[in-house]
């Protein structure tokens, strides 16, 4: 689509490690439009955070190699110098993380930290910045913004800290927000509030959001489209309705089956996906899911399937048997 806000084409990341070169992200492509929330899901270790770090230009060229195209609002970020890229991503792409305390400076007040970002990326005067800090904290639902601006990070609750991180992220009016497991550390009520806040900000500003999560309830609440990552590759991409109604990749289906259901009681243990994500230094020749897949056939182990459109909706699936899995129970 020509008017995609973010276009990621064939993103690949290699790390040099003691066990040799590993490739935790291998040929990942997706798009995000304005006013759209894209979910990236998958178990721990599937390459979600590395994908986000690569998009943001946060990976050190000394230890990693990033290939592929990242096009934000029509501009190819991958062809900019590291410095130009940081400047541009700092303004137009923002990121929030699971643990706000780790990203906040413990020896600076909240107000001073937001001010630093405003000074760096805007030309507002000191008094304009003071006003902006208060209005940003108000926008993220902090009831006493002046007091919060004067507080130290450790004085705030986890939910308040995440609100502050969101305020900092939207301070420069980015067109894209990347949120890496932003609510994983929060309890359910606060998690719901933060998700609602993200959705509200998206409606107000029109920005696109990429939300990384292993929690399907987050996807159901926030996302329009979803990319399922497995062992560093997209194994399924679809709209959120189809994800829940007609998932086709056996891994997506297993993720859905492993979801705690409403009737879950302590006596009915959670379904878990048997086996493990393959080790990066020892990836199988064929389908990376074959060792765990109940539908695996000899062909699956011999030859890796490509991502392809299956069914009548825009549903992309990386599985030899994708046409069959849509009709299986
Ligand atoms: N700096 C690094 N050097 C080497 N391997 C890394 C590095 N960062 C992440 N990895 C590996 O890349 C894989 C994907 O990690 P990550 O993207 O953090 O997974 P997740 O999907 O849980 O966010 C993991 O196997 C992880 O150990
Ligand atoms: S290609 Fe084969 S092993 Fe891989 S997910 Fe599909 S059926 Fe399972
Ligand atoms: Mg992660």
TrEMBL record:
GO cellular component: plasma membrane
InterPro entries, alphabetized: AAA+_ATPase, ABC_Ni/Peptide_Import, ABC_transporter-like_ATP-bd, ABC_transporter-like_CS, Oligopep_ABC_C, P-loop_NTPase
Pfam (any one): ABC_tran
Molecular-function GO term, any one: ATP hydrolysis activity
ABC transporter domain span: 6-256
Superkingdom of source: Bacteria
Keyword Nuclease among record annotations: no
Any Gene Ontology biological process: transmembrane transport
Compartments it resides in: Cell inner membrane
Membrane-topology annotation of the record: Peripheral membrane protein
Enzyme Commission no: 7.4.2.9
Entry keywords, A to Z: ATP-binding, Cell membrane, Membrane, Nucleotide-binding, Transport
Main location: membrane
Reactions catalysed according to its record: a dipeptide(out) + ATP + H2O = a dipeptide(in) + ADP + phosphate + H(+)
Record NCBIfam families: oligo_HPY
PANTHER family per record: DIPEPTIDE TRANSPORT ATP-BINDING PROTEIN DPPD (PTHR43297:SF2), OLIGOPEPTIDE TRANSPORT ATP-BINDING PROTEIN APPD (PTHR43297)
Family of this protein: Belongs to the ABC transporter superfamily.
UniProt protein name: ABC-type dipeptide transporter
């Amino acid at each position: 689509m020509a008017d995609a806000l973010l276009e990621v084409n064939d993103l690949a990341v290699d790390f040099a490690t003691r066990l040799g070169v590993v490739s935790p992200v291998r040929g990942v492509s997706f798009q995000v439009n304005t006013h759209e929330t894209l979910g990236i899901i998958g178990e721990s270790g599937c390459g979600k955070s590395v994908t986000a770090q690569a998009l943001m230009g946060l990976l050190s060229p000394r230890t990693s190699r990033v290939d592929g195209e990242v096009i934000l609002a029509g501009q190819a970020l991958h062809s900019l110098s590291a410095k130009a890229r940081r400047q541009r991503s700092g303004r137009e792409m923002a990121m929030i993380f699971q643990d706000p305390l780790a990203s906040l400076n413990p020896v600076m007040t909240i107000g001073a930290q937001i001010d630093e970002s405003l000074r760096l990326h805007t030309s507002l005067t000191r008094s304009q910045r003071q006003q902006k800090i208060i209005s940003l904290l108000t926008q993220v639902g902090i009831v006493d913004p002046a007091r919060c601006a004067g507080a130290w990070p450790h004085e705030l609750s986890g939910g308040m800290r995440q609100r502050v991180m969101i305020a900092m992220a939207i301070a420069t009016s980015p067109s894209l927000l990347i949120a890496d497991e932003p609510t994983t550390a929060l309890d359910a009520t606060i998690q719901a509030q933060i998700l609602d806040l993200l959705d509200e900000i998206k409606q107000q500003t029109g920005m696109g959001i990429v939300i990384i999560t292993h929690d399907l309830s987050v996807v159901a609440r926030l996302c329009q489209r979803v990319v399922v990552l497995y062992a560093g590759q997209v194994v399924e991409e679809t709209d959120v309705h189809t994800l829940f109604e007609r998932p086709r990749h056996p891994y997506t289906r297993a993720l859905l089956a492993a979801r705690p259901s409403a009737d879950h009681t302590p006596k009915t243990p959670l379904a878990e996906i048997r086996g493990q994500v393959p080790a990066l230094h020892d990836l199988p020749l064929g389908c990376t899911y074959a060792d765990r897949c109940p539908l695996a056939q000899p062909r699956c182990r011999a030859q890796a399937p490509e991502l392809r459109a299956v069914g009548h909706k825009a549903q992309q699936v990386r599985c030899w048997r994708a046409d069959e899995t849509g009709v299986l129970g």
